[in-house]
Each structure stands twice: as structure tokens, then as C-alpha cells.
Amino acid sequence: MPTLWVDADACPRVARDIIVRAAERTGTQAFFVANHQIPLPPSKWVKGLAVSHGFDAADNEIVQRLTPGDLLVTADLPLAMDALEKGAMVMTNRGEALTRDNIRARVQMRDFMETLRASGEHTSGPKGYSDSDRREFANALDRWLAKYMTSHKP
């Protein structure tokens, strides 16, 4: 049965709340993995997993536990690449699907922007989390859960 994994260190609270409600509504196991304890409501379906504070400890824990068909919510592109290699599906907390077809271009753009910043160029950071982002994420998560629920009926 597929599991929902959340790279919780950088997951906006509003996205976290959407995931909690969706997991409860559909009976889908969801794990929030972070370098610290994430406040979550008591739930049979939603669990927090705090890992050591080492570099990429949360990412490594997620990759180790992922199985093919699981869904990972993350904006971390190297983590997304590792998840895709393991056969998981990946979406950002804005509802954008990360796939084997688009991940390399995104990593190249991220690296290019890092090079610009290192050379002293001022670039803007990520835009704020908007109502539109919230809606897109909730809709994308609902689509994945509906597909998962249909394909796993007894």
C-alpha cells in the first residue's frame, strides 16, 4: 500500500495541514520527516519522524524508507531525483509533479542560479506561498489520492 512521505523541514504549515486532512479523510499513511519534532495532531494515519541533525539526515531517512509507488512531497531537487530513482512519485508543496522527464532541467536551472548568486548577482528567492499554490497543491494531492484509492480497491 503506497505511503505519503513529506520532507517536513521546509514544508509550509498550510501544506502540512492539507496533507493531514487528506490522510485522515482517505486513510492514507503519511510520515512527516524532519530534523526536529513537527507539531502534528494525534492520528492513526499521520506520524512524525524526527531524525538526527546530520547533513541530509532527513533526506537519507526518506530515501531509505521509500518504496515504488509512494508519493514524496518535497522541493529538494536532489532528494526528488533519489526518490524518482527508487520508483516513487514526487510533487512539490505547490502541486508541481517532478518526473524523470523534468527533474534534470530543474536541477540545471537551480545550479545556474547558484552560480549567479556566487558571482554576486542578486536573485530573488522563492515566491511566497499563495492561495493559488495552496489550491494547486490540494488539487494535485487529491488527484494522487483518488488514483491511489482506485488502484488499490480490494
What does this entry look like structurally?
It comes from Halomonas binhaiensis. This is UPF0178 protein E4T21_13715. Belongs to the UPF0178 family. This protein has helices at residues 13-26, 57-65, 77-85, 103-118, 131-151, and strands at 4-7, 30-34, 46-50, 71-73, 89-91, 97-98. The chain has 154 residues and is an alpha/beta fold. The protein has one domain (4-151): Rossmann fold, CATH 3.40.50. The chain has a 6-stranded mixed β-sheet. Strand 1 (4-7), helix 1 (13-26) and strand 2 (30-34) form a beta-alpha-beta unit. Helix 1 runs parallel beside helix 5 and helix 3 (77-85) runs antiparallel to helix 4. 27% of the residues are buried. The mean pLDDT is 88.
Averaged pLDDT, please?
88
Q: Characterize the main sheet.
A: 6 strands, mixed
Termini distance? 11 Å
- What is the rounded Rg? 16 Å
SSE order in H/E notation? Answer: EHEEHEHEEHH
- Work out the helix count: 5
How many domains? The number is: 1
Number of strands: 6
Structural class: alpha/beta
CATH class: Alpha Beta
The second-level CATH architecture is 3-Layer(aba) Sandwich
Q: How much of the sequence is in beta strands?
A: 5-15%
CATH topology description: Rossmann fold
